[in-house]
Amino acid sequence: MATPDTRKDRTGTQAIQRCAALLRLITTFNRNGMRLVDLYSNAGLTRPTAHRLLQALVAEGFVRQDDRSKRYFLGSLTYEMGVAAAAPYTYDLRDTCVPYLRQVADATGDTVFLTVRSGLDGVCIARAEGAFPIKVFVLDVGRRRPLNIGGGAAAILSALPDDEIRRICLANKERTERDYPRYDWDELQRRIARAREQGYLENEVLEVESVRSIAVPILDPHGRPLGAVSISALSSRLRGQALADKVGELQRAVRAIEAKLREHVAED
Hints:
By secondary structure, this protein is α+β, with helices and mostly antiparallel strands. The chain has 10 helices and 8 strands. Helix 1 (4-28) crosses helix 2, helix 2 packs across helix 3 (47-60) and helix 6 crosses helix 9.
């Protein structure tokens, strides 16, 4: 028989889970913000419940609401907590990679991304824009997607054991099928197999037609994936010799990043 304390515990846990779901959604779409209707429908909540939780998050500084558009964005407290809580090695990785992202963007003219794993998701933590006039902004910094979606995330998967890949994809199955109707598990397996043979991953961007990405995983000294560097561009810019040249730029950058990280480990 449930006691008042256990009922309170269940209610408190449910509230935390719902707040976490709202924060994940806002994080994913923070660049443009999210409307209340989109938040409660995507989180599977009623409008009153979502509104009540959002107002509590706003009051505590986790979320802010734009006065004009009424859209919700991450608040300053989430940034402060992220800075305090992030693993130092993740910040070493980002800081180490940023100059190389810039080099690749300058050399290729394309947009370059750094993606890391966060549980079952891939998260973009840095981006550099090239000079080519048609920009391909597949990811905003801070955006989360399932780890089986996107070139950089799939490159991370390619460096994981097969049983771990299956576990991740199975755990992400429901939301992947809901949010990415063009996703194909068999095709992902083929891309991962090719990536292991050729040293880089090629990917068709699901959210945008006629856009492709190429990615190379960043490995630690033990061969475990720390993240991936990727290029997203119009499909016509990732063919033939242009493709080979850009793969070379990515691979050289990743080798240099891995060497820098080994130096950091040796110094520690």
